[in-house]
Design a protein that fits this description.
The complex is a heterodimer of chains A (114) and B (116). By secondary structure, chain A is mostly beta strands. Chain A is 0% helix and 47% strand. In chain A, a hairpin with a 6-residue loop joins strand 4 and strand 5. With 116 residues, chain B is mainly β. In chain B, 36% of the residues are buried. The model of chain B has no long low-confidence stretch (mean pLDDT 91). Classes of the chains: A mainly beta (114), B mainly beta (116). At the A-B interface, strand 9 and strand 10 of A face strand 4, strand 5 and strand 9 of B.
Amino acid sequence: EADIYQTPRYLVIGTGKKITLECSQTMGHDKMYWYQQDPGMELHLIHYSYGVNSTEKGDLSSESTVSRIRTEHFPLTLESARPSHTSQYLCASSDMGQAFYGYTFGSGTRLTVV
Amino acid sequence: AQSVTQLGSHVSVSEGALVLLRCNYSSSVPPYLFWYVQYPNQGLQLLLKYTSAATLVKGINGFEAEFKKSETSFHLTKPSAHMSDAAEYFCAVSGAGGTSYGKLTFGQGTILTVHP
């Protein structure tokens, strides 16, 4: 079944640790996105990619970095986690064929930095 | 450029009552419009989409939305609310052509509360 997967679902980690949030999709979508969302709040685009070896920063400045070495994989890394990074992180993907049907979202990773 | 405004960050209804969540957009090109739902600690799930076919769009869970070009609106409705409808709802717009094609801009979200 085609889908988009995020791991871990929940992560509690200490300040200063390096973390990587994983996102993989099995749909062959070229475009992938990372959003940051505080509880009950709007979505903020922090990174996006239009294909392998293509990454761009989004509308909200973020200390995180991303990579896109394979079409299906779009991990997000924080080199040194801080309490201000506590948030939910949502990964999404979309196809850019002849029609646009919107984004498919993963279930999210809720990150808590203590 | 395109933008989306959701009127009312919180909406509260009684179970069985009409649900109306408002969305207005601005777009320099004819848009594609979407409604997503987000349950607590989950990602966003597509409810319905308008992509220039019928102006009244039916989605999952009994929701529907009507595209009104003259009012630049795409309000989401459901005739009878259920407790399970309690969630946050996001309206989103994409241009149907040009540089904004395939790039979603989201509204601020509306939290729907359903009372017994």
